[in-house]
Amino acid sequence: MLFVGDDWAEDHHDVEVVDETGRRLVRARLPEGIAGISRLHALLADHLGQEWVEAETGPGGAQVVVGIETDRGSWVQALTAAGYEVYPINPMSVARYRERHCTSGAKSDAADAHVLAEIVRLDRAHHRRLAGDSPEAEGLKLVARTHQSLIWDRQRHVLRLRAVLREFFPAALAAFDAVGLELTSPDALELLGRAPDPDRAAQLSRSKIAAALKRARRRDVEAKAEQIQTVLRVPELRQPAAVQRAYAVIVSSQVRLITALIGDIAELEVVVAEGFGRHPDAEIYASQPGLGVILGARVLSEFGDDPHRYTDAKARKNYAGTSPITRASGKKTVVLARYARNKRLGDAVHQWAFCALTASPGARAYYDTLRGRGTGHHAALRQLGNRLVGILHGCLKTRTTYNETTAWAHHAVEHTGTAA
To answer: How far apart (Å, rounded) are the C-alpha atoms in residues 60 and 294?
Structure first.
């Protein structure tokens, strides 16, 4: 077998190839792209022999193991397509292994390639092999992550807009709050686009305000328009004219960004829903209490659809970050939440647990039991999420949809026994 350490950069890869004894066979810097991956295949072929080159199963097979600090990109896909065993190693783990090889603190790309090769040669059993997810699941993950990132971006811009308005135009916030408008509401954004400063806002006619509310399909339009106009015309402290003009430009810019993000989020939501609906596992995920189309797509795509990726429910829980970690030393034992995890998946499971409270009587009873023991809200949601991930694993393993009685029967028995 050959073991390859691949320290990647934007335009090149430093690679080192060692044999089973750790003897270095090749050290090279390869360009990114077809030329680089072809050169890597050639280097490996030189040391594997003609029998490997002519194998009908394709190059690599189980004879080449690659360690690299990423699980994405066309280079990684080319390694997988060649039949190599690819291990995406967490950069934090690589840093710890580097200290094992060099205590002076020295670092270089070639040395990191050597460390990666040694990791997969000696310790690959302690690391997770690249998941064999389908292209459909990978595509769904891309659009689901982008959709979530755009939502986060929208929230950041909304907070910036709110901060700017508080500094020079608090009447806008007061006017919208008076009639229950959010800053992401289309009518609120339209009014801010028309009047991004106090002077222009005070000149807005009631008919223009009412028209914006009507386009947003608000009720009791005339009363709300009058209330908004009244608040906007109340005298308030002002910034100097030059400062106010600068703030108005910022408000207009933020309004355009938020409006564009809202449109992009809506378009991506359709794409995410379509991708989720086409996936073979969609029925199982959609049957779970608290999982709708978008949240279900996030959970599915982050877990992946490789049926052999998780050996048991505990492995799936560990990856989700719902299972706790234990620190034990001498007589002291501490149980802590697992924060080193897939944060996107952890966020999705936390939302899933919260939504399950109203969708599943069993989930609600389990949460209430935890709260009755003095467990905090978020800690109880983490434990509920841990339970839900285990239920999902069982459903995927048996290829059955969720059943409320089956899912919570064991907990009901325990609860009854405790009460007795």
So the answer is: 38
Q: 255 with 381, same domain?
A: no
* This model's pTM is above 0.90: no
Provide the 3-class DSSP secondary structure of residue 205: coil
**Which residue bears the tokens 């694993």?**
393
Kindly state whether residues 263 and 164 are assigned to the same domain: yes
Question: Among candidates 21, 16, 19, which has minimal Cα distance to 4?
Answer: 16
117 and 156 share one domain? no
Question: Which CATH number characterizes residue 24's domain?
Answer: 3.30.420
Last residue of a domain, one of 130, 151, 186: 130
Please tell me the distance from the alpha carbon of residue 288 to that of residue 299, in angstroms, as a whole number: 11
How far apart are the C-alpha atoms of 197 and 382, rounded to whole Å? 44
Identify the domain containing residue 16 by its residue range.
2-130
Asked if 12 and 30 touch (Cβ cutoff 8 Å), the reply is: yes
Three-class SS of residue 61?
coil
Check residue 330 and give its pLDDT: 84
Each residue's pLDDT tens digit, 98-127: 887 777 777 888 999 999 999 999 999 888
Which pLDDT band holds residue 197 (cuts at 50, 70, 90)?
very high
Smallest CA-to-CA distance from 320 within 308, 304, 303 is with: 303
DSSP E strands in 49-88: the ranges are 64-68, 85-88
For helices 241-278 and 293-303, what crossing angle results, to 10°?
70
Mean of pLDDT values over 131-152:
94
Q: How many domains does the chain have?
A: 3
